Amino acid sequence: MLDPSLLRQNPTDLANRLRARGYALDVAAIERLEAERKLIQVRTQELQNLRNTRSKAIGQAKAKGEDVSALMAEVAGFAAELKTSENRLDEIRQKIEDIALGIPNLPDDSVPVGEDENGNVEQHRWGTPRVFGFAVKDHVELGARNGWLDGDTAAKLSGARFTVLRGDLARLHRALAQFMLDLHTEDHGYEETNVPLLVNADSLRGTGQLPKFEDDLFATLKTDASLFDVDLDALLEILKAGKKERIGFSELSGPVGALFKSIKDRYLIPTSEVPLTNIVRDTIVDDVALPVRMTAHSMCFRAEAGSHGRDTRGMIRQHQFEKVELVSIVRPEESAAEHERMTRCAEVVLERLELPYLRALLCTGDMGFAAIRTYDLEVWLPSQDTYREISSCSNCGDFQARRMQARWRNPATGKPELVHTLNGSGVAVGRALIAVMENYQEADGSITIPPALRSYMGGKDRIA
User: Fold this and answer.
1) Residue 352 CB neighbours (<10 A)
2) Same domain, yes or no, for 333 and 393?
3) Which domain, by its residues, includes 87?
4) In terms of domains, do 283 and 405 share one?
5) pTM score
6) What's the CA gap between 397 and 403, in Å, rounded?
7) Total number of domains constituting the chain
């Protein structure tokens, strides 16, 4: 969340700055709400003062034995108006907060302006793509041997965008995650952390997934007695809507939508960034504990809303996948350097695996919602003859910290101040598996094991 003063004091200037992110801020609506808020807030304070002074007068009159009925009637009138005023003030504040929660972070001045990925700026490349003396296969063809990669069985079990891995390919997938965790904990100083896969709405709101990206989340529903209190006809409508592969929450409006939202319980995490970052929610971190660096290997779950028809073949874009995540909590003045450090940690993974990659600085139109600056790492995929994203490392500044009320005590002032948060993939395990399969394939369909992974594979040097 942005500093509220930016929204209150000069929404027109803020709207101009947000245009680079493709976000249209409704300045008129904000100014209208702010004007009403100020009027009602002043009236609420007047009523509170009147109630207090009249209540005091009642006490004084009673002490003198005087008739207080008129004063009490007056106070009762103030109380009724005050209650109405306070309720309206709460409604307006909530509307303003709802607008604020949907506003993306402001890009750093160093971020290139652009509408989409075509505006990203390549920083550097590492490694040279291999020249093959035979027709290369993609990871799906390579994985089809011996049923190593089985999408048909996964579809029978769960539907589209799921995969079953078997045998040495499943072991290679596990080896990649273990290798990444060992590298980040032993060489890069991150603390290994095991986190829940189910989180509450406050956690997702804290890192910026809610309310804007609710359609891309999987939610569980309450199973307690409260379900028996719902309107069964409305519940039937929900179930009918759920005939699709999943229910799009934003598509359910009115009483049905309200009912559905009321019975949601927890959410499956889209990335372990969510629980890792929220560890510091509603806390004041000691200065001596900073920087906090955490890494986690976890399942991730995404509905892939809006990606229909994209990357449907194989493991590129799935509902369930695994990542090794990096999260840093730092002092504000350290976040720019920490961003470079974190991105470098992710690059080392690819270099140790000897996978060619490039680093790109994302433009304003391609950055994530919470980021002020983002680097993408793209790994070379021979079957596509191009680089594809395998890691995204973002500096979020104090945007998430303000939503979470995550602070540190500045020893120079003795006062709590907002921390800066950063997150990055270190890296996506499934996409690393694809890159290893394709870059290390041989003419006979076997896959050479990268030297860095052989100790995790029981000394094997290839999958044959």
Assistant:
1) 16
2) yes
3) 4-101
4) yes
5) 0.89
6) 12
7) 3
